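Now for a specimen:

…
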Amino acid sequence: MADFQKRPVTATLWGTGTLLLIMASVVWLPRVIYPPLTTHELHAVASGKERIELQQAQAQVQNDFRGQLLQCLAGLVVTAGALAGWQQLKLAREGQVADRFSKAIDHLGSPTCDVRLGGIYALERLAKAYPADQPPITYLLGAFVRDRVAWPAGLPNGPEHPTPVVDTQLPWLSSRHPDVQTALWVLGRRDVHPDEQALYLSRLDLRRASLRGARLDKVNFRHANLASAWLVDAVLADSRLVNTDLRRANLQGASLVRADLRGAHLQDADLRRANLRGADLTGADLTGAQLDGADLADTHHDDTTVWPGQNTL
């Protein structure tokens, strides 16, 4: 408490000292730069009238300089005030952003779905308004999705992966988990920030997710369940889809350039017009997949790759 009481006194003393220094400079500096004529110099002038005129001219020069000095100081005061105001505005705005960010995070943890949806859209607005904050917002939304729809394939007591059959009666993800679907939509339509880390969406239950045209390049989907997902025209270039369940997924026109599809389950997937140039299909199972118009140039595959129509007996 004593420190807070001392701060106004200290500020007052600094302000008073600065003001006295400025006043002294205004009075003293003109006399230093334009010193008055000495007695010897005045006696060298024969006419008394001329001596008076010289003294008046000298005083006028000092006054003009003093006026210029005051104008400069006034400009500096205005500039300092503007800078202080801008700094206060900046701090106030940062405080507002922090408050909005905190409230959005609180909404994500709400037991009410509508409140969680509001938190997701609030984070999207913050990411668009303040691009520098987008990387942590992207990470936060990814963590939210991972928490809501975990698919711990390969772990003790985890689900069988892939499942024996694809559940064609399963509701769309937007019906089962509308908040997760919304978070995926937000992630899929964002402008990727250069400082962002690659999204980690591995071992998630994303069956029947709707991600048409989503930009999800360089995303890690290892061991995820994307069976019957709607991925038409989605961008999955350079993504890791190792052992990912993509059975019956609609990947028409999707970009899978250089995607890592080793061991991926692509049975009955629709890959018409998909761009698989440079993709790694080693060990992938494409039984029954539709590949009409697909670009398979430079794909990596071997004897473990199962192609449509291939007899596996």
Observations:
- Residues 135-313 form a domain with the Pectate Lyase C-like fold (CATH 2.160.20.80).
- The chain has two domains: 18-100, 135-313.
- Helices lie at 2-33, 39-43, 48-108, 113-129, 134-148, 173-176, 178-189.
- Residues 1-6 have pLDDT under 50 and may be disordered.
